[in-house]
Amino acid sequence: MRLKTQNTFFLAAFFTVVIQLAGCNTKPVNLSVARESVKEYYESGKYDEELDAVINEAKEKFSKIEFTENSVVIFDVDETVLNNYDLAKQLGFGYVYKMNKKWNQEMKAPAIPQVKELYEYLLTRGAKIIFLTGRNIPEFEVTYKNLKLTGYTTFDTLITQREHEYNLTPTEFKSSKRVELTEMGYEIFGTVGDQWSDLNGAYHGIQVKIPNYLYQNAF
């Protein structure tokens, strides 16, 4: 998920998950070692193994649902259906606002195959799909095209963040949109995202947490 930079606290994975605790003392890992740990996890197949397990569990849960005409599952975009790993790697697993926006404009992000498999499974079950992203409204068109180009060709709508919503926290934004969709008549059976802020709040249904060790955002 990407909310406006001024309102989002991005952290590389090595700033958040590779701190060793020894009694009352914290022992941070050298950044070069942490970067290599993140790279090794993603490129050795461990990330794919974890993601496979998550998707298989999600399919099992959704297999028990009887979808109706207004049933919907909501997907986040970045690090959920689209993969920005190559950009993160170029940046040393940090974040540069202008380079991120340039990457988005060039529509370089490929689909995440396992999540696309879940998307296709849900379509065969009769679920409607909605993409809900914290990308800003000026990026609506390129995000829409990127989704289509990577094979996400069937969905009800794409929702991006509008100017008056920029000051909302990620959880507030996503939750408020789910409330609006419910009031419109949609029945939300699940949410799929790489951040807990994609999943928490009102009307989340089955929560499918996609692993992400590149960054975490504010809640």
Summarize, please.
By secondary structure, the chain is of the alpha/beta class. Helices cover 41% and strands 19% of the residues.
Q: How many β-strand stretches?
A: 9
CATH topology: Rossmann fold
Largest sheet, strands/sense/barrel = 5 strands, parallel
How is the largest sheet built, in terms of strand order?
Answer: 6-5-4-7-8
Total domain count: 1
Q: Architecture, according to CATH?
A: 3-Layer(aba) Sandwich
- Helix fraction by DSSP (H/I, runs of at least 4): 40-55%
Task: Write structural notes for this entry.
There is one protein chain. Helix content is 41%, strand content 19%. It starts with 10 loop residues before the first strand and ends with a strand. It contains 9 helices and 9 strands. The protein has a single domain, classed as 3-Layer(aba) Sandwich (Rossmann fold). The strands form 3 sheets. A 5-stranded parallel β-sheet has the order 6-5-4-7-8, with helices on both faces. It is an alpha/beta fold and 219 residues long.
Q: Which terms summarize this structure?
A:
single chain; 219 residues; alpha/beta; Rossmann fold; five-stranded parallel β-sheet; two-stranded antiparallel ribbon; 9 helices; 9 strands; 19% strand; globular; disordered N terminus
SSE map:
Layout: E1 11-12, H1 13-16, E2 19-22, E3 25-28, H2 31-43, H3 46-62, E4 71-75, H4 85-90, H5 97-105, H6 113-125, E5 128-136, H7 140-149, E6 157-161, H8 170-183, E7 187-193, H9 196-199, E8 206-209, E9 215-216
Parallel strand pairs: 4-5, 4-7, 5-6, 7-8
Antiparallel strand pairs: 1-9, 2-3
